[in-house]
Amino acid sequence: MLDKVKIEELIKEQGDIVRQLKAAKESKEKVAEEVAKLLDLKAQLSNEEQATNGPQKFTLKTPKGTRDYSPQQMVIRQKVLDKVVSVFKRHGAESIDTPIFELKEVLTGKYGEDSKLIYDLKDQGGEILSLRYDLTVPFARYLAMNKITNIKRYHIAKVYRRDNPSITRGRYREFYQCDFDIAGAYDPMIPDAECVKVIQEILDSLDMGSYTIKLNHRLLLDGMFEACGVPSSKFRSICSAVDKLDKSPWEEVKKEMIDEKGLSEEVADRIGTYVRLNGKSELVEQLLKDEKLSKNKSAVEGLEAMKLVLKYCDFYETSSNILFDLSLARGLDYYTGIIYEAVLLGDTTNGEDVSVGSIAGGGRYDNLVGMFDPKKKQVPCVGVSIGIERIFSVMEAKLATIKEKVRTTEIEVYVASAQKNLFEERMKLCNELWKNGFKVEHSYKRNPKLLAQLQHCEDQGIPLALILGESEIQKGVVKMRDVISRVETEVERSKVIEELQKRVAQFNNVP
Amino acid sequence: MLDKVKIEELIKEQGDIVRQLKAAKESKEKVAEEVAKLLDLKAQLSNEEQATNGPQKFTLKTPKGTRDYSPQQMVIRQKVLDKVVSVFKRHGAESIDTPIFELKEVLTGKYGEDSKLIYDLKDQGGEILSLRYDLTVPFARYLAMNKITNIKRYHIAKVYRRDNPSITRGRYREFYQCDFDIAGAYDPMIPDAECVKVIQEILDSLDMGSYTIKLNHRLLLDGMFEACGVPSSKFRSICSAVDKLDKSPWEEVKKEMIDEKGLSEEVADRIGTYVRLNGKSELVEQLLKDEKLSKNKSAVEGLEAMKLVLKYCDFYETSSNILFDLSLARGLDYYTGIIYEAVLLGDTTNGEDVSVGSIAGGGRYDNLVGMFDPKKKQVPCVGVSIGIERIFSVMEAKLATIKEKVRTTEIEVYVASAQKNLFEERMKLCNELWKNGFKVEHSYKRNPKLLAQLQHCEDQGIPLALILGESEIQKGVVKMRDVISRVETEVERSKVIEELQKRVAQFNNVP
User: WHEP-TRS domain: from which residue to which, for each copy (chains A, B) (predicted)?
Assistant: First the structure.
């Protein structure tokens, strides 16, 4: 750790940077990024001070790469999750939950290079634990531990990666994953096609605009690499080079293959002719006749699988959203069959589809469960993970654009009092309404001002107010106010429940 | 860490213990406890082996004190949470979420002795982090950080305590908390009475049987201690001695006060006369006239507050569930006003109420937010935490008793085929049904046996099956089977959706 004086210097410098950016009216994202650095430095300073001086004031923040969800954000999050879950349930998925941490050895050797991003817990005596990195490995552990050979399950929960996230681009160290997986030994490509269908239903139900689901097959990739002359020891590393094609141009990827991964230019060029291909079933047919691929067992197997899944996608009417794309590689090592990834297409008004990034992905992983089974018994699995954090961000941005106010409570009726000393009546009326299942609140002050109470209703979007007044109490009535129209009507005290039931039903029927 | 040979010895010994218990047909709980110890030892051995030999087979388990939730358990958990949330929403609560970990310094100095139970993350460079211990401290941090001075929020999330939990008694190291809090400067006891009301509504809606909500006040406790002659430095430690009265007899607690906490017998006896008192508002009146208490400012203040809250509880009709109980102390240091705790009453057939333990609790904490604010600005808070894990356990036990089978999916219609080669028709029909919003599944085998398909429907409690057959396809009809009655009717292919809508609505209307 840096010493205090050094950190104080850095804080001063960083403060200047932030001030300059603000003065120059730079973009919000840019300012936010530099402010985040500043807050980190302040936290470091506070840690340092605490270490030397004992407990003290500290910077009030959430840990790096994490955030709180405000009530507004929670409402959006819940709406998105409800829609996603309803699709999972429509396809018969059960749900499970696993602990937030696992024995470290459960995670060891599953994520390749990314293992360095795993959060470890401090050794406080006892077991050595790590926070989960995804939901797939705990799912495989769960299946092996409980000897489950078939299940269709969804799991929505937070996972943890010590990445250097760009928060302004919606990436975090603590984030939700939202997984749907089908485990079991079944006939080829049937569960696989359903996973693609699930992606389609979710993106459509969330109204995410136009998108493409790219498909490819690991066996085809391997076969293609082999046919192009890549030694098998380099399949995975060439695979991750190909994976970069969604962000980098071919020339750059080719350079990496030659300079860093040690391929000859000739071999790289051969790969290049393939990975730039994409299409539908006619491309499968074309490649099945390709001189090199047609002689490669793995490639043919992959192509036959693609042919089958494309047929099933026809039956499931997902074909129009699908693209067989030889450049799709997916980062994770554990995939063994079909892989897919959905990308949102940006604004198409200028005639060009601009990809705004991956929003769902997955594939088949037939060997992961066996890594946990003492007898190496395999349970074939295929699944999909929805990029729910990106979807939250898109939704938040949408709502910000249309400036729609999101209600964060569901209160239907506000009980107000027009004069002082009606506190007891207010409480009794609230109690009666709660008993009848209405969502109700009233002021926590004994004698609040009527205007303040009505203002609260308007601010919070509460549709109805019941106003207690002395003259009304004497007449045996209550004033019922429609908050939007401000129309007030008198209702007999004994008929309040009945009348409210009618009114609330009306409000709930308005979409 | 012990060395390998030593651990192997211990495993052998522990294995013998387990075998003996099983042979002696000891209770499940006892056996489970010893088996847990055995599994821990095996995990230690595996860690040890891995350290010396590199990756190897290891014991497949979740970390100590944690568990997976099976689909059955998830269904129960979701039902309970839905009911709890609906009460929170009825009272106008918004929801928030915070990260699973906090800067360690956020938690420091908030939990007294229990701080040793906090899970720390390993220092991997950067900030020093700990898993959250409860939801109250992160809530206070959230308020101070966002300068929020009033909010009514609920938060349902997991918290972490490195306790030595008795899993057989439903206690875990990872467990859910379910909190409802009202923050803001309001008139006395109004939000407090609503928290008590919320407990009542939740326990009633969950049908938890009879229960008592005990109430007390920290100011009354302090005043009583002072009046009895306890030095103020010992208030909190005597408070935690009193807190044990729900589990230990007075004589034991008295002994602790004298031997461990250094009170004289006379002072302890004076406390004893008070803490054995409980009652309703008549007890408040009696104590207001008590020679010692009536002269103590703090005690009188506490009693006046009790008087007010009991009146409000009358208005909210919670009085019949309430007991003003001077032995209620609550463990946490941060309470500053009213405190409460709901206990379930066990079987009362033998004329005696047996407490089966605390199921909800909370109180007022006016100084916690100020601990995070740079200017020590206070935000008064009062809240309640529902002991949701205990409720899950009670519910699971109930369902086990009545042997009700819990459905873990919501599938409404199963699409089956009577002969081979109807795979395409099956997929197309499923697709049509999904499009129309039905919850549908079919076999992932191309040519499954009809009996196996129908058996699946019965096992899973799927109410309806559509059976595709060649002769029906030629006739332009589909067979619709009511799975429970096994009655089959033919429906025109073009009217399947319409007919299903009717049938499914019927099933969904049955409670």
Answer: 3-59
Which residues partner with A323 through β-bridges? A214
Report the DSSP pairing between strands A355-364 and A338-345: antiparallel
Return residues 392-411 of B near A (CB < 8 Å).
Answer: 408-411
Give me the helices (H) in A355-489, please.
Answer: 388-402, 423-435, 450-460, 470-475
Residues forming beta bridges with residue A7, ordered by sequence position: none
- Distance separating alpha carbons of residues B61 and B40, to the nearest angstrom: 9
Residues of B in contact with A123 (CB under 8 A): 122
Check residues A349 and B107 and name the one with the higher pLDDT. B107
Instruction: Kindly determine whether residue B158 and residue A100, on different chains, have CB atoms separated by under 8 Å.
Output: yes
Single out the residue in A345, A377, A395 at which a domain terminates: A345
pLDDT band at A53 (very low <50, low <70, confident <90, very high): very low
Asked if A162 lies within 8 A of B124 by C-beta distance, the reply is yes
Q: Does residue A376 belong to any structural domain of this protein? A: no
- C-beta atoms of A142 and B68 within 8 A: yes
At A302-325, the pLDDT tens digits run: 999 999 999 999 999 999 999 999
Per DSSP, the residues of B219-236 read: HHHHHHHHHHT--GGGHH
Per-residue pLDDT at B58 exceeds 90: no
Interface of A with B in 360-389 (CB under 8 A): 372, 374
Measured N-to-C along each axis, helices A4-23 and A28-53 cross at an angle, to the nearest 10 degrees, of 160
On whether both B296 and B236 belong to a single domain, the answer is yes
Could you give the CA distance from residue A110 to residue A232 in angstroms, rounded to a whole number? 20
Is the CB of residue B147 less than 8 Å away from at least one CB of chain A? no
CB B210 within 8 A of CB B345: yes
Residue A192 has pLDDT above 70, yes or no: yes
Please give, rounded to a whole number of angstroms, the shortest distance from the CA of A170 to a CA of chain B.
Answer: 16
Residues of chain B contacting residue A392, judged by C-beta atoms under 8 Å apart: none
- What would the mean pLDDT of B62-73 be, rounded to a whole number? 94
Residue B356 lies in a domain: no
Cβ-Cβ contacts under 8 Å for B61 (sequence gap 6 or more): A103, A145, B39, B43
Residue B297: CATH number of its domain: 3.30.930.10
d(CA B505, CA B501) in angstroms, rounded, equals: 6
Structurally, how many domains does chain B consist of?
Answer: 4
* C-beta of residue B392 within 8 angstroms of C-beta of residue B406: no
Within 8 A by CB and 6+ apart from B502, the residues are none
CB contact under 8 A, A201 and B434: yes
Same domain, A441 and A399: no
Same domain, A146 and A219: no
Domain carrying residue A433: 413-509
pLDDT tens digits for range A210-240: 999 999 999 999 999 999 999 998 988 898 8
What is the complex's ipTM, to 2 decimals? 0.85
In B236-295, the residues whose Cβ lies within 8 Å of chain A are none
Interface with B, mutate which of A132, A198, A202, A315 (most B CBs under 10 A): A315
Using pLDDT thresholds of 50, 70 and 90, give the confidence band for residue B51. low
Whether residue A147 lies within 8 A of chain B, CB to CB, comes out as no
Angle between helix A71-90 and helix A388-402 axes, rounded to 10 deg: 130
Q: Are residues B229 and B321 in the same domain?
A: yes
CB contact under 8 A, A99 and B62: yes
Inform me whether the C-beta atom of residue B180 falls under 8 Å from chain A C-beta atoms: no
Q: At B385, which helix (H) or strand (E)?
A: strand B381-386
* B299 & B330 share domain: yes
Give the best residue of A41, A59, A86, A94 to mutate against chain B (max B CB count within 10 A). Answer: A94
Mean pLDDT for all residues in chain A: 90
Q: How far is A411 from chain B (nearest CA, A)?
A: 5
Residue whose tokens read 């609040």:
A448
